[in-house]
Amino acid sequence: MAVDAKICGLKTSDAADAAVRHGARFVGFNFFPNSPRYIGFDAVRSLAARVPERIGKVGVFVDPDDQMISQAIDAAGLSMVQLHGSEDPKRAADIRERFAVDVMKVIRVAGPDDLADVPAFEPVADWLMFDSKPPKGATRPGGNAVAFDWRILAGKTWQRPWMLSGGLDASNVAEAVRLTGARSVDVSSGVETAPGVKDPRIIRTFLETLKGL
């Protein structure tokens, strides 16, 4: 079975085109203002138009209000809302029902105990994402190029599809998939030359690495 990928934090047409051309299953647009990957509604409109219908368009949010979600869906034609903040299961369910989009809830992991929240989100989220807890002093909840101990997920199964995230790049994604059994992975900083600066050649290498697994 192939391993799908989401190329997240796209801001430029050449990066978006590379993700599409080389086989990304999802692309992500970051609507968290404190992120170097933040993209505004006007800019995302033209970028999202380059992405074919077959590829899922995911909006990344941190504790968003309804107005922000509505504007982002309208601008980017989102098929999924990724919740990367402190949203609880009730909020996830409300967004899913109110906006009729898939919801992915991020579970931040440092140790086995951090998986305790999963059962509460399984009934209300279409996808789960397992990402690293941000390091001390970090200004954003994700995209910090930090991996967690992938063995924490070894042998685990859930009722929902899930993505692995956190510090992945072409050099370590094969090992991450081997240890966790992930069938979908998310990458952002691992295909960049600087925070927020995607490199089409690195995107290609990452996606071709997945095809070879």
What does this protein structure show overall?
It is a single chain. It is built from 7 helices and 10 strands. It has 213 residues and is of the alpha/beta class. It has one domain (4-211): Alpha-Beta Barrel (TIM Barrel). The strands form 2 sheets. It has an 8-stranded parallel sheet. A two-stranded antiparallel ribbon has the order 9-10. The longest helix has 12 residues, at 200-211.
Core attributes:
globular; 213 residues; 8-stranded parallel sheet; TIM Barrel; 10 strands; alpha/beta; two-stranded antiparallel sheet
Question: Helix count, per DSSP?
Answer: 7
Distance between the termini: 9 Å
Q: Write down the secondary-structure element order.
A: EHEHEHEHEHEEHEEEH
CATH architectural group: Alpha-Beta Barrel
Structural class: alpha/beta
Strand line-up in the sheet with most strands: 7-6-5-4-3-2-1-8
- The CATH homologous superfamily name equals Aldolase class I
Shape: globular
Brief sketch in words of this structure:
With 213 residues, the chain is α/β, with parallel strands linked by helices. It is built from 7 helices and 10 strands.
Strand-helix topology:
Blueprint: E1 4-7, H1 13-21, E2 26-30, H2 41-48, E3 56-61, H3 66-76, E4 80-83, H4 89-99, E5 102-109, H5 118-121, E6 127-132, E7 162-164, H6 173-180, E8 184-187, E9 192-194, E10 197-198, H7 200-211
Parallel strand pairs: 1-2, 1-8, 2-3, 3-4, 4-5, 5-6, 6-7
Antiparallel strand pairs: 9-10
Helix pairs in contact: 1-7, 2-3
